[in-house]
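A.,

Following up on our hallway conversation. C-alpha coordinates first:
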Protein backbone atom coordinates (compact mmCIF):
# COMPACT_ATOMS: atom_id res chain seq x y z
CA UNK A 1 0.00 0.00 0.00
CA UNK A 2 1.16 3.50 -0.80
CA UNK A 3 -0.47 6.74 0.36
CA UNK A 4 0.31 10.26 -0.76
CA UNK A 5 -0.72 13.37 1.16
CA UNK A 6 -0.34 17.11 0.97
CA UNK A 7 -0.71 18.49 4.48
CA UNK A 8 -3.67 20.93 4.51
CA UNK A 9 -3.55 24.70 5.02
CA UNK A 10 -4.80 24.44 8.61
CA UNK A 11 -2.18 21.84 9.55
CA UNK A 12 -0.32 22.64 12.80
CA UNK A 13 3.47 22.29 12.48
CA UNK A 14 4.66 19.27 14.45
CA UNK A 15 7.23 16.49 14.57
CA UNK A 16 6.89 13.50 12.28
CA UNK A 17 6.62 11.30 15.38
CA UNK A 18 3.63 13.32 16.59
CA UNK A 19 1.99 13.18 13.19
CA UNK A 20 2.26 9.40 12.96
CA UNK A 21 1.56 8.47 16.57
CA UNK A 22 -0.88 11.09 17.83
CA UNK A 23 -2.72 12.38 14.76
CA UNK A 24 -2.76 9.43 12.38
CA UNK A 25 -2.56 6.73 15.12
CA UNK A 26 -0.12 4.56 13.19
CA UNK A 27 0.70 1.55 15.45
CA UNK A 28 4.20 1.23 16.91
CA UNK A 29 5.10 -1.75 14.71
CA UNK A 30 4.17 0.08 11.51
CA UNK A 31 6.00 3.26 12.61
CA UNK A 32 9.10 1.13 13.11
CA UNK A 33 8.76 -0.31 9.60
CA UNK A 34 8.35 3.16 8.08
CA UNK A 35 11.56 4.35 9.70
CA UNK A 36 13.71 1.23 9.23
CA UNK A 37 12.64 0.62 5.64
CA UNK A 38 12.88 4.33 4.79
CA UNK A 39 9.26 4.20 3.70
CA UNK A 40 8.39 7.66 5.01
CA UNK A 41 9.14 10.21 2.29
CA UNK A 42 9.01 13.94 2.98
CA UNK A 43 8.81 16.02 -0.20
CA UNK A 44 10.19 13.07 -2.14
CA UNK A 45 13.12 12.29 0.19
CA UNK A 46 13.25 9.21 2.48
CA UNK A 47 13.27 10.23 6.14
CA UNK A 48 14.45 8.32 9.22
CA UNK A 49 14.65 11.25 11.65
CA UNK A 50 11.13 11.37 13.04
CA UNK A 51 11.99 14.45 15.12
CA UNK A 52 11.92 16.50 11.93
CA UNK A 53 9.15 19.05 11.66
CA UNK A 54 6.42 18.85 9.04
CA UNK A 55 4.23 21.78 8.07
CA UNK A 56 1.36 22.75 5.81
CA UNK A 57 1.81 22.01 2.10
CA UNK A 58 4.47 19.36 2.81
CA UNK A 59 4.13 16.31 0.59
CA UNK A 60 4.23 12.99 2.42
CA UNK A 61 4.36 9.50 1.00
CA UNK A 62 3.89 6.39 3.17
CA UNK A 63 4.73 2.95 1.82
CA UNK A 64 3.54 -0.23 3.53
CA UNK A 65 4.58 -3.71 2.41
CA UNK A 66 2.04 -6.52 2.28
CA UNK A 67 3.36 -8.01 5.52
CA UNK A 68 3.33 -4.72 7.47
CA UNK A 69 -0.30 -5.28 8.46
CA UNK A 70 -2.16 -8.47 9.29
CA UNK A 71 -4.23 -9.71 6.40
CA UNK A 72 -8.02 -9.41 6.16
CA UNK A 73 -9.94 -11.52 3.71
CA UNK A 74 -13.64 -10.80 3.29
CA UNK A 75 -15.70 -13.14 1.18
CA UNK A 76 -17.03 -11.28 -1.82
CA UNK A 77 -20.79 -10.81 -1.93
CA UNK A 78 -22.95 -9.36 -4.68
CA UNK A 79 -21.88 -5.93 -5.89
CA UNK A 80 -25.41 -5.11 -7.08
CA UNK A 81 -26.63 -5.29 -3.45
CA UNK A 82 -24.30 -2.47 -2.36
CA UNK A 83 -25.56 1.08 -2.87
CA UNK A 84 -22.56 3.37 -2.35
CA UNK A 85 -23.21 7.13 -2.14
CA UNK A 86 -19.54 7.94 -1.34
CA UNK A 87 -16.10 6.39 -1.80
CA UNK A 88 -12.52 7.66 -1.74
CA UNK A 89 -9.06 6.14 -1.30
CA UNK A 90 -9.56 5.48 2.41
CA UNK A 91 -13.24 5.05 3.21
CA UNK A 92 -16.57 4.08 1.76
CA UNK A 93 -20.13 4.85 2.88
CA UNK A 94 -22.84 2.38 1.93
CA UNK A 95 -26.62 2.53 2.22
CA UNK A 96 -27.81 -0.54 4.14
CA UNK A 97 -31.35 -1.74 3.48
CA UNK A 98 -33.50 -2.85 6.39
CA UNK A 99 -33.28 -6.57 7.09
CA UNK A 100 -29.60 -6.88 6.13
CA UNK A 101 -26.79 -7.37 8.66
CA UNK A 102 -23.84 -4.96 8.67
CA UNK A 103 -21.43 -7.90 8.92
CA UNK A 104 -21.81 -11.65 9.16
CA UNK A 105 -21.38 -13.72 12.29
CA UNK A 106 -19.23 -16.26 10.44
CA UNK A 107 -16.77 -16.05 7.53
CA UNK A 108 -19.29 -17.63 5.16
CA UNK A 109 -22.30 -15.48 6.08
CA UNK A 110 -22.90 -12.74 3.52
CA UNK A 111 -23.84 -9.28 4.77
CA UNK A 112 -23.41 -5.64 3.77
CA UNK A 113 -19.65 -5.79 4.37
CA UNK A 114 -19.33 -8.58 1.80
CA UNK A 115 -21.45 -6.80 -0.80
CA UNK A 116 -19.48 -3.55 -0.34
CA UNK A 117 -16.22 -5.50 -0.73
CA UNK A 118 -17.48 -6.88 -4.04
CA UNK A 119 -18.56 -3.43 -5.21
CA UNK A 120 -15.22 -1.73 -4.46
CA UNK A 121 -13.08 -4.73 -5.40
CA UNK A 122 -11.32 -5.24 -2.08
CA UNK A 123 -11.90 -6.21 1.54
CA UNK A 124 -13.30 -3.46 3.78
CA UNK A 125 -13.22 -3.00 7.54
CA UNK A 126 -16.28 -2.39 9.73
CA UNK A 127 -16.05 0.94 11.58
CA UNK A 128 -19.53 0.88 13.12
CA UNK A 129 -22.75 -1.05 12.60
CA UNK A 130 -26.50 -0.62 12.35
CA UNK A 131 -29.13 -2.97 13.74
CA UNK A 132 -30.46 -5.47 11.22
CA UNK A 133 -33.86 -3.73 11.29
CA UNK A 134 -32.40 -0.22 10.76
CA UNK A 135 -31.63 1.10 7.28
CA UNK A 136 -29.20 3.79 6.21
CA UNK A 137 -25.62 5.02 5.96
CA UNK A 138 -22.78 2.80 7.24
CA UNK A 139 -19.09 3.73 7.21
CA UNK A 140 -16.35 1.25 6.25
CA UNK A 141 -12.56 1.68 6.18
CA UNK A 142 -10.71 0.57 3.06
CA UNK A 143 -7.39 -0.05 4.80
CA UNK A 144 -5.88 -0.66 8.22
CA UNK A 145 -4.09 2.67 8.07
CA UNK A 146 -7.28 4.72 8.32
CA UNK A 147 -9.22 2.26 10.51
CA UNK A 148 -7.92 3.42 13.94
CA UNK A 149 -8.31 7.07 12.91
CA UNK A 150 -11.97 6.58 12.04
CA UNK A 151 -12.53 4.54 15.20
CA UNK A 152 -11.09 7.35 17.33
CA UNK A 153 -13.23 9.91 15.52
CA UNK A 154 -16.30 7.89 16.52
CA UNK A 155 -15.13 7.73 20.13
CA UNK A 156 -14.61 11.50 20.19
CA UNK A 157 -17.97 12.22 18.54
CA UNK A 158 -16.23 13.73 15.52
CA UNK A 159 -18.39 11.63 13.20
CA UNK A 160 -22.02 12.71 13.39
CA UNK A 161 -24.87 10.38 12.53
CA UNK A 162 -28.29 11.80 11.81
CA UNK A 163 -31.30 9.48 12.00
CA UNK A 164 -34.95 9.81 11.09
CA UNK A 165 -37.57 8.03 13.21
CA UNK A 166 -41.33 7.78 12.88
CA UNK A 167 -42.52 7.58 16.48
CA UNK A 168 -45.82 6.72 18.07
CA UNK A 169 -47.97 9.53 19.44
CA UNK A 170 -47.75 13.30 19.32
CA UNK A 171 -44.27 14.63 20.02
CA UNK A 172 -45.17 17.79 21.91
CA UNK A 173 -41.69 19.31 22.21
CA UNK A 174 -39.88 20.81 19.24
CA UNK A 175 -36.53 19.74 20.66
CA UNK A 176 -35.51 17.35 23.42
CA UNK A 177 -32.20 15.99 24.70
CA UNK A 178 -32.32 12.63 26.46
CA UNK A 179 -29.32 12.02 28.70
CA UNK A 180 -29.98 8.64 30.31
CA UNK A 181 -27.52 5.77 30.82
CA UNK A 182 -28.19 2.51 29.02
CA UNK A 183 -27.31 -1.01 30.11
CA UNK A 184 -28.23 -4.60 29.34
CA UNK A 185 -31.61 -5.92 30.42
CA UNK A 186 -30.85 -8.78 32.83
CA UNK A 187 -34.21 -10.40 32.10
CA UNK A 188 -34.01 -10.31 28.29
CA UNK A 189 -30.59 -10.60 26.65
CA UNK A 190 -31.98 -9.16 23.39
CA UNK A 191 -32.78 -5.83 25.02
CA UNK A 192 -31.13 -2.77 26.54
CA UNK A 193 -32.77 -0.60 29.21
CA UNK A 194 -32.32 2.78 30.85
CA UNK A 195 -30.26 1.92 33.92
CA UNK A 196 -28.32 3.92 36.50
CA UNK A 197 -25.54 1.36 36.27
CA UNK A 198 -25.37 1.62 32.46
CA UNK A 199 -23.10 3.66 30.21
CA UNK A 200 -23.88 7.29 29.51
CA UNK A 201 -26.03 7.80 26.42
CA UNK A 202 -27.12 11.12 24.88
CA UNK A 203 -29.70 11.52 22.11
CA UNK A 204 -30.78 14.91 20.69
CA UNK A 205 -34.28 14.95 19.17
CA UNK A 206 -35.91 17.50 16.86
CA UNK A 207 -39.53 17.22 15.73
CA UNK A 208 -39.85 17.52 11.95
CA UNK A 209 -43.53 16.74 11.30
CA UNK A 210 -46.74 16.08 13.19
CA UNK A 211 -49.15 13.57 11.73
CA UNK A 212 -52.59 12.50 12.91
CA UNK A 213 -51.32 9.76 15.21
CA UNK A 214 -47.54 9.76 14.93
CA UNK A 215 -44.58 12.16 14.59
CA UNK A 216 -41.43 12.30 12.50
CA UNK A 217 -38.30 13.21 14.48
CA UNK A 218 -34.63 13.74 13.70
CA UNK A 219 -32.14 12.10 16.06
CA UNK A 220 -28.50 13.05 16.60
CA UNK A 221 -26.23 10.89 18.74
CA UNK A 222 -23.41 11.96 21.03
CA UNK A 223 -22.81 8.32 21.97
CA UNK A 224 -23.33 5.00 20.22
CA UNK A 225 -24.90 2.54 22.64
CA UNK A 226 -26.66 -0.56 21.40
CA UNK A 227 -30.29 0.24 20.48
CA UNK A 228 -29.77 3.75 21.90
CA UNK A 229 -32.46 5.58 19.92
CA UNK A 230 -34.97 2.77 20.35
CA UNK A 231 -34.40 2.61 24.12
CA UNK A 232 -34.50 6.37 24.66
CA UNK A 233 -37.64 6.92 22.60
CA UNK A 234 -39.38 4.01 24.28
CA UNK A 235 -38.47 5.36 27.72
CA UNK A 236 -39.85 8.77 26.65
CA UNK A 237 -43.18 7.20 25.75
CA UNK A 238 -42.69 7.45 21.98
CA UNK A 239 -41.68 4.01 20.74
CA UNK A 240 -40.61 3.81 17.12
CA UNK A 241 -43.31 2.65 14.75
CA UNK A 242 -42.65 -0.98 13.84
CA UNK A 243 -40.53 -1.68 16.93
CA UNK A 244 -41.77 -5.03 18.23
CA UNK A 245 -38.91 -5.34 20.73
CA UNK A 246 -39.36 -2.04 22.58
CA UNK A 247 -42.89 -1.05 21.59
CA UNK A 248 -44.89 -4.24 20.95
CA UNK A 249 -45.70 -2.98 17.45
CA UNK A 250 -46.09 -6.01 15.19
CA UNK A 251 -48.29 -4.44 12.52
CA UNK A 252 -45.59 -2.73 10.46
CA UNK A 253 -43.46 -4.26 7.71
CA UNK A 254 -40.29 -2.59 9.03
CA UNK A 255 -38.76 -0.65 11.91
CA UNK A 256 -39.23 3.02 11.05
CA UNK A 257 -35.68 4.07 11.90
CA UNK A 258 -33.33 5.25 9.15
CA UNK A 259 -29.73 6.53 9.39
CA UNK A 260 -30.08 9.13 6.68
CA UNK A 261 -26.83 11.08 7.01
CA UNK A 262 -23.18 10.78 8.09
CA UNK A 263 -21.17 13.97 8.60
CA UNK A 264 -17.40 13.95 9.10
CA UNK A 265 -14.19 15.61 8.04
CA UNK A 266 -12.14 13.38 5.76
CA UNK A 267 -9.31 12.58 8.21
CA UNK A 268 -6.39 13.42 5.91
CA UNK A 269 -7.71 16.20 3.67
CA UNK A 270 -10.03 17.79 6.28
CA UNK A 271 -12.66 18.03 3.54
CA UNK A 272 -16.16 18.15 5.05
CA UNK A 273 -18.22 15.17 3.98
CA UNK A 274 -21.99 15.26 4.42
CA UNK A 275 -23.28 12.05 2.87
CA UNK A 276 -26.99 11.23 2.70
CA UNK A 277 -28.67 7.88 2.13
CA UNK A 278 -32.33 7.50 1.23
CA UNK A 279 -34.81 4.69 1.83
CA UNK A 280 -37.79 4.18 -0.43
CA UNK A 281 -39.62 2.05 2.12
CA UNK A 282 -39.10 4.61 4.90
CA UNK A 283 -40.16 7.54 2.71
CA UNK A 284 -43.21 5.68 1.42
CA UNK A 285 -44.38 4.83 4.94
CA UNK A 286 -43.97 8.46 6.06
CA UNK A 287 -45.95 9.57 3.02
CA UNK A 288 -48.79 7.29 4.13
CA UNK A 289 -48.94 9.18 7.43
CA UNK A 290 -50.03 12.31 5.59
CA UNK A 291 -53.18 10.56 4.38
CA UNK A 292 -54.32 8.86 7.59
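Then the amino acids I'd put at each of the 292 positions:
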Amino acid sequence: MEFNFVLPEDFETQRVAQLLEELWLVPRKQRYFLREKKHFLLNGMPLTDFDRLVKKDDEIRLIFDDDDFSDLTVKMGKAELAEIPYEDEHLVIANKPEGMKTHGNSPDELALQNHVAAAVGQSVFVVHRLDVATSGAVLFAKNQFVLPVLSRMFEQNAIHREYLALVQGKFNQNTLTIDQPIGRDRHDKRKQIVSKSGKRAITHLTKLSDFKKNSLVKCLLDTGRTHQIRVHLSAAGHSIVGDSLYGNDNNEPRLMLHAHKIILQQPFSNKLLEISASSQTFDARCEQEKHY
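The two ends are 56 Å apart (CA to CA). Curious whether your intuition agrees with the design.

B.
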